[in-house]
Structures are given as C-alpha cells and as structure tokens.
Design brief:
Elements lengths: L9 H4 L3 H10 L8 E3 L2 H8 L8 H13 L3 E6 L18 E5 L25 E3 L5 H81 L5 H14 L9 H13 L2 H12 L2 H4 L11 H4 L7 H13 L6 H31 L1
C-alpha cells in the first residue's frame, strides 16, 4: 500500500498538481523493491493511456525532477550493455528504470516481500537519465519524421482532393452555366420563334384581310372551276356540289386566289396520311375537309406547306404564282390522261 508519509513529505508537497498526479499514479506499478520500468513510452502506454495531456515528454521531465529532488533514482542501462534474467522465458530486461525512496512509496506491515527482477542502480552499469533516453529519443525522432511524412502525404492528398473538388465544381459550374445559357438561348429562340410566328401569322391575317377586301365576290363559274379541279385531284371524288360545299368554296375564294386553292389541294392529296395510309385507314383528303366553313382555313395550311415543299416560301408573290400555275397545268394534263386511260380500261 502507499506509505502514509507521502502526505507530509515536503518534497511531494513541492510538486505541481500534474507532477503529483504522475508521482502517485506510478506507485501502484512499482514492485516490492520500489522499482519499475520507466521508459516514458511504456509509462504513457501503461499508466496514462486515457490522459492525452500527459505526454511522454512530460513524463520524462517529471521523472528527472523526482530524481533531482530525491524522490527516487531515474537511471538507464549503459549503452552497449543488456541485462539478462535467469528465470526461464525471460529474455532481457528493460533498459530504463525508476526506483522510489521506500519512505515515500510503499509500506508492507509484515507482508512478505517478493524480490525484484529489475536491477538496482549500479554506477558501473547504469547512468542517470539527465537527458532523454536514447531509445525514446530515437523513437520520438522516428515518429516525428513519420508524422511529418504523414502530414505531408495528407497535405498532398488534401491538395489533390481540393484540386479535384475545384475541378469538379468548376466543371459543374461550367455545365450548369452552359445549360443555363442553352436554356436561356433556347427560351430566347423559342420566344423569338414564337414572336416571329405571331408576326407572320399576324401578317398573314393582315394579308388575308387585304385579300378579302381586294378579291372580287366569287361567281358560279369560279366555284365550279374549283369543284371540277377537286374532282380531278382528290382521291375521294366528290360527285355533288351541295350547298354546304358551295358555301365553303365561296368562303375560300373570298380569301385566296384560285391558283392558291388548287396548289393547296394538290399538296393535301400528295400526303400519304391524308390519302389513307394511317392507323384508321381513313381518307382525309376530301372536299368537305378542305372547304368546311366551321373549321380553320385548311387552304392556308396546305398552301404554306406547298411553298416549303417547292422551296419558294421566300419568293415574291408573282414568282410564286408563276411557278404554281406551271405546276397546276402540268398536274391537270397528267391527271386527265390518267383518268381517260382508266375509263378506257374500265369500258373494255
């Protein structure tokens, strides 16, 4: 057990709180001759594993102070000498020791003492630990170098990670910026396109209104001309010019010229979908589809498509009319020959 004399020891009382803690915590680890292994690395690992503030350096300095004020002897093996113990299984003994003064450490009160296996201080074979033990110095130097290398390696890794993160962040920002620009550009284009379409549509409507004002009222001759052309051009041949159909054609003739209506009809009948090549197998290219008064202006839709197909959408109105009339005359001649041939085959 710890000797009661420690309470009244002036040497112990002169220690700092940290040194007193170290001194008292060492006592349970000494043997019956008040000796212990005192390598600061071992002391730190065994006695103060959970006290990070008590480092090997603090332990070493405290042991030197204990030695200097007479609380014990802090000694180590002379370099080159190794002590062996004869007990089987023990190869060598530690090289750094501390031996307490009995009156400040333990008292036995008749308990049988067990001889220590650690050597007592011998001036021939030991030296005082006035400086850090060689082993501790070397280990600390190695650890310090290792720590420096680890720190450098960690810094390099951190720098690499930082660079990678910066590059990734930069790429992400660039991508986001690019996407944003693309979206803005796309929105801008859509708006421009929309505005352009609105303007075109507005212009178209204005032009149509102008045409309505400029074009003469349709007569029966022009209505019959359009009806006959539809009979020749459309796959679903109309047989009767009903009142509803006549009103539809008259409405279109108030807006469009005859050559525009004919060119639009030709474009409509050229569409495979409109001729019946669709899921329902239904023919949509009919006279009722083209001239329905209740629906939107189908002639304008197919007329614009015809201009794009022919590549004359940017031409002047006169050039469009000239090109359209040539195509219409050629179409009428070709379709008339086909109908005559078909009728001859049917009669035979």
């Amino acid at each position: 057990m710890i000797a009661r004399a420690i309470s009244t020891s002036r040497k112990v009382a002169g220690l700092s709180d940290q040194e007193a803690l170290i001194f008292t915590w060492l006592i349970p680890w000494i043997d019956d001759d008040c000796r212990m292994e005192a390598d600061p690395e071992i002391v730190k690992a065994r006695i103060f594993p959970l006290r990070p503030e008590i480092t090997q350096e603090i332990i070493h300095k405290s042991l030197i102070k204990f030695h200097q004020i007479g609380l014990g002897i802090y000694y180590q093996t002379t370099p080159g000498l190794v002590y062996h113990y004869t007990r089987p299984g023990v190869v060598s003994l530690p090289s750094v020791y501390f031996e307490f003064s009995n009156k400040n450490a333990q008292t036995f009160h008749g308990i049988k003492k067990i001889p220590s296996i650690l050597p007592s201080y011998d001036p021939l074979h030991h030296v005082w630990c006035s400086a850090a033990p060689e082993r501790m110095f070397k280990l600390n130097k190695m650890k310090l170098n290792k720590m420096k290398l680890n720190d450098k390696s960690q810094k390099d890794k951190d720098n690499i990670n930082k660079k990678n993160k910066d590059n990734i962040n930069k790429k992400n920002k660039d991508n986001i910026s690019k996407k944003g620009k693309d979206n803005i550009s796309k929105k801008g284009k859509d708006n421009i396109s929309k505005k352009g379409k609105d303007n075109i549509s507005k212009k178209g409507k204005d032009n149509i209104s102008q045409k309505i004002r400029d074009l003469p009222n349709p007569n029966d001759e022009s209505v019959n001309d359009i009806f006959k052309f539809c009979q020749l051009a459309l796959p679903s041949i109309p047989t009767e010019l009903s009142t509803q159909r006549k009103c539809g054609i008259e409405k279109s003739l108030k807006i469009h010229k005859p050559w525009e209506i004919k060119l639009a009809t030709m474009e409509c009948q050229n569409s495979d979908f409109m001729k019946g090549n669709n899921e329902n197998g239904k023919v949509y290219a009919t006279i009722d589809y083209m001239f329905n008064r209740q629906r939107e202006d189908k002639v304008l839709k197919w007329l614009e498509s015809a201009f794009e197909t022919l590549g004359i959408q940017n031409k002047t109105h006169e050039d469009k009319e000239k090109k359209a009339i040539e195509l219409i005359d050629s179409f009428i001649e070709k379709r008339t020959k086909e109908r005559l041939k078909s009728n001859e085959l049917a009669s035979n």
